[in-house]
Amino acid sequence: MIDLHTHSLLSDGMLLPSELVRMAEKNGYEAIAITDHVDFSNIDFIIPRIVKTCKALNRYWKIKAIAGVEITHVPQQSIKGLVKFARKAGAKVVVGHGETISEPVLPGTNRAFIEARVDILAHPGMISDEDVILAKNNGVFLEITTRKSHSKPNRRLVKMALRHGTPMVLNTDTHAPGDLINNRKRDLFLTRLGLDNRAIRQIVRNSRLIAKVRKKGSMS
Ligand SMILES: [Zn+2]
Ligand SMILES: [Zn+2]
Predict the structure, then answer these.
(1) Checking CA distances to 76, which of 84, 92, 110, 123 falls within 20 to 30 Å?
(2) What average pLDDT does range 69-92 have in this prediction?
(3) Whole-angstrom Cα distance, residue 209 to residue 202?
(4) Nearest ligand, measured from the Cα of 97
């Protein structure tokens, strides 16, 4: 399992970053990105701490810990600048907190994240066809989420992404240890969304690509 969207207690998650990574390893994860919520108040505080932690863990543990952020509820005009800042500060996975149906995210935020070329547009809610196409052209991966509060439009998202050939990833948006999943649960979740084996393997490959993790046993 590769999970590219999770939260530690550096934002609103329950676990210390190291604790989160350890729990993920226990669940059989190959890689996990810690992507705490950031805005102007904390982006410079959070990233160096996650970078430092991931570096230390990766020195000793088998699981790959990846430093990231989720840019959350910021003015659309500031998104490009924050993405640039995050990458410069060492975030390897930049997630945009998209227009979920469960929060008053400003309309147009999906578009702004896609234009800023984040790695992943999280829980994009009732995303438009136009934005699904633009995501493909800009190399932005659309997120299928297992998180209950965001997950209702998953089926619609999958259909649109398949129709336009836009790449998807599956993430848990973990805040508590019980939110973590495993390969079996991932495959079951995706099967229930109507995806066939081939589509599921492609989604797994997409996560691998962003995480820069090679398939086990592969020499290339
Ligand atoms: Zn979010
Ligand atoms: Zn999140």
Answers:
(1) 92
(2) 98
(3) 10
(4) 1
User: pTM here?
Assistant: 0.97
State the distance from the centre of ligand 1 to the C-alpha of 117, rounded, in angstroms.
16
pLDDT at 33 over 70: yes
CB 42 within 8 A of CB 91: no
pLDDT-derived band at 217 (thresholds 50, 70, 90) equals: low
The number of beta carbons lying within 10 Å of the beta carbon of residue 158 is: 19
Amino acid at 2: I
| DSSP sequence for 1-24 | -EE--B--TTTT-SS-HHHHHHHH
Hey, which bits of the chain come out as E strands?
2-3, 31-38, 64-71, 93-97, 120-122, 141-145, 168-171
Q: How far is the CA of 35 from the centre of ligand 1 (A)?
A: 9
Q: What digits encode the pLDDT tens for the residues 133-177? A: 999 999 999 999 999 999 999 999 999 999 999 999 999 999 999
Instruction: State the burial class of residue 198 (Cβ atoms within 10 Å of its Cβ: 0-12, 13-18, 19+).
Output: exposed
Residue 110: CB atoms within 10 A of its CB come to 28
Q: Which two tokens stand for residue 200?
A: 């599921």
